Hints:
Blueprint: E1 2-3, E2 10-11, H1 19-28, H2 35-44, H3 49-83
Antiparallel strand pairs: 1-2
Amino acid sequence: MVECKYCNQDIDADGHDVPEYLDHLGECHPHDVGRIDEQRLRIQWEGDLDEARSVSYRWSALTISVAAASAFFVFGLAVVVLFG
C-alpha cells in the first residue's frame, strides 16, 4: 500500500512508480502534480497528460455550473413557497 501524497488515500500499489499509483495521480490530481510526478505520468501515459488535464478541467467546470444552477433553482423555489 502506498499513500497518495496529494489526498492521503491509500493506493493498492508497491511504490510511487507503479501504474496503479500513477493512474490515480493522472485521474484524480492532473493539475496538482509536481514536475517529477508529471514526468512519470508522461512516461506512463505516453504523453497524454495534457488531454487528461483538459478533460478534468471541463468536468470541473461542468460540475460547478450544474451545482450553481441547482442552487439558484432551490433558492427560487424557496422564495416562491415562502412569499407566494
